[in-house]
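TL;DR need structure tokens for one chain.
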Amino acid sequence: KISKLYPELLVTASYASLIKKELRQIPTFGAINLHPSLLPKYRGPTPIQTALLNGDHKTGTTIFRLTSRLDAGPILAQRELVILPEDNFGSLKEKLANISAELLIEIIPAIKDNSLTERPQDENLASYTHKFSKKDFWINWDNKIKIIFNQIRAFSPSPGARTSIHNTNLKILQTEIYDSSKNDKPGTIAGFIKNKGILVNCQDGQLLITRIQAEGKKVMSAWAFQLGARLTAGESFVPFDKIFIENSYREEL
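>> reply
TL;DR here they are.
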């Protein structure tokens, strides 16, 4: 059916499956994919989340030829993008989609006149991402503050980094590193900042939660949530190792 359309170019975006050789050979100018990382770094299904989890300061997009190996074909073009501290999965995904589309439009004429220099990927520099399990979304307050901060960025707005208090599961959607010198028992509420949010102790500092979503509720400010939930300083979020034992992780969020 596709061959009857006489396509000139097959374009996929963030496509995490192999395309058969017979299909790749149908278009006049072949088949290419847009991948949201600077290949060969972060091949696989979750490059945006992984860049945020690792606290990277830059990422980018790669346009490459599809081959018989996933995300391993020769590179046609790349464009870098700075990752800002306020970026999360949602904002970074949108930025990468925009620069990918712009780059594609720019190089299509060069693809058609065969003036692009294709560059093979350096296998020595290749790294791989993986799909996440549900356990990966839950916050371990015993971790260092930057690990938790980056976890929340990587999974916001969806599926959301999770925690639990007062028998209620929560998505933590936005935080700020408030104080990296103060710390108390990890997971305990250190206090509140009026009209801003909830201060939580981590292993090596305090994190300010500013945006939150309670189970079955709409997204709201953390300040508004704590007023309704009547949280108090000294209370603790459920420890990571008890989340699954107590069967408090559910699918409603």
